[in-house]
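sanity check both lines:
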Amino acid sequence: MKSNRRNFLQRNCTAIGTASLYSTLCTMRMTAGATTNTTGYKALVCLFLNGGNDSYNMLIPYTGINNAAGYGGYRDARGGVGTDSSGFKNGGSGLAIDRSALLATRLNSVSNQPVSRYSVHPQLPFLAQQFNNGNLAFVSNVGSLIEPTTLSSYQQGNAELPLGLFSHPDHQMHWQTIMPQVRGATPKGWGGRIADIFHQAANPSGEVAMNISLAGNNTLQTGFSSTPYVTSHDGPSSLIDYNDNLIKNAVDSMLANTYPNMFEHTYANKQKQSIENAVIFGNAFDNTSLSNPIPNTTTATNNNTAQQLAGVIRSIKAGKNSLNMNRQMFFVEKGGWDHHNELLDAQGGISYANNPALADGSNGLFYEVNEALEYFWNELTLEGLQDEVILFTISDFGRTLTSNGQGSDHAWGGNAFVMGGGRAPDGPNGEPLGGPLKGGQIYGQYPILDPNNIALDLDIHLNKARGRILPTTSADEYLSELVSWFGVDPAQLPDIFPNCIKFFNPLSTGYPLGMLDGAPGGN
C-alpha cells in the first residue's frame, strides 16, 4: 500500500485505539443495562470452518447455463466441469460441479441477485431444505474489511487493507477480532467484547460465563475481562476423585491459603473458581439429555461436528433451565477446509457404489456438516428452541475460482450461511410472527463469476485473473445483524465492531442487511 499521511495516522494510532476501546468497554459495561434488550432467551452459535472454505462450490448459480452471470459463468470460471452427474469427481480438469448434480438441491427463486435460481452442493441437501422452508439464508461475498474498498482503490494502493491479506493465521484472527488493521489477539475477540459490556446486564443471576466453547480456547470469545468457559460435548472435566470428601477438603484447604506471592495467589483463586464452575455447570449439564443419539454415518469414528453441536444443545438446556442464563454464545469448529491439494473429493467425498455399507460422499466435509446440522435442528425443534437460537458460519476467506492443478488457493470474499427459525407472514395488525430469520434469501451480492465478465477479480488488471474476489459485504455488516438480534443496542455496535461506522450508521439501524430486523421479541 502506498505510504501517505492518512495511512500513517491509521496504522500508528492502532495501539492508542485499542487502549481507548478497553476504556470505553469498561465504561459501557456500567451502563449496558439501560440500553440493551435482554428479554427472553437467545443464543448465538458460531460454526467456524477453519481453513478457508471454497464456498463458491457451496452456493452455486443454477439457472443461466449459457449466461455469464449464471451456471455457465461459474463453470467457465472453475475451468470446466470436474464431476459426474452425481457430483463426484470424475477426473476432469475443472472444479465445477456438474449441473445435473445440482438439480436435487436447487433453492427457491430469489430476487436482487444476478440470476434467479441457485443451488447448494449436492452433499448439502439439508441446507437446501432449510433454505426452501425459510429457516436458512446465505450471506454472499462477505469478507473482513477495514473500510469500503473498490477494485480501483485496491489496485491503486489507496485502500487500507487487512494486514496479512490471504494469510491463514491473520484472517482467522481477523474474523475473531473484527479489527483487521491489527495483527494478533490484542484487540480481543468480538464475542468477548460483547461479554465485557453485556453479560452483567443480560445474565444478572447467571451462574456460568456467557461464552461457552466446545472447541477449546479461542480469541473470538475472549474479552478484556471475560473468558470463555471451555467444555466438551460430554460436559466439563473435573478433578479426579474430587467428590471424595477427604480429597475435596485437602484441595479446598490448599486453594484457600493466603499466598504472599501475587502469582501464586492469582493462580490459586483461578483454580478455585475453575473447580467451582465445573461443579456448578457439570451438575446442570448432567441433568440434561438429548432426544436422539448423536448420529454418525460418516467414515470417521465420530461425527465431531455433530458431537460439538450436541454439547451446545445440552449447554443451552442447562443455561436456560438451571443456570439463569438469558444470553449465551457458543463456539464450534470444524477444520480441514484448506483445499490446495484436493477440493472436489475433500468437500464432496467419493462414491461408494461398490460398498453399500457406506453412504456416498460420507468421507467428505459437506456430508459431515449436513448430518450435524440436521441433527442440531431436529433437537432444537423437539425442545421448541428453534426461534431462540441462531447458528452462523465464518471461515478464513474464500478461495480462488481457478484451479492450481489440484485444488484452489487462498482468496478473499466468500459465502456464509445463517440458520434459525424462519419468519412467518405478519399478523392481521402487521405484527411480526414466527421466528427471527427472514430466510429463503441471499443477502449481500453474489458476484458474476465468468472470467470474461468478472468485475471484482483482484488480479484482472495484471491480465491473470484467478478468481480472487473482492468482498462487497463486510464482516461488520454481517455480524452486526446477529449481535443486534442478540440484544445489543445499535449505539453500542461501534464498541464491538469499531469499523462498522464506515459501512453503515448504527444509530439508524443495527440491521444493515435486513436479515433479522423486526423479529418477534427482537430489538
In short: Residues 299 and 405 are 27 Å apart (CA to CA). Residues 42-233+294-502 form one domain. The radius of gyration is 23 Å. The longest helix spans residues 262-286.
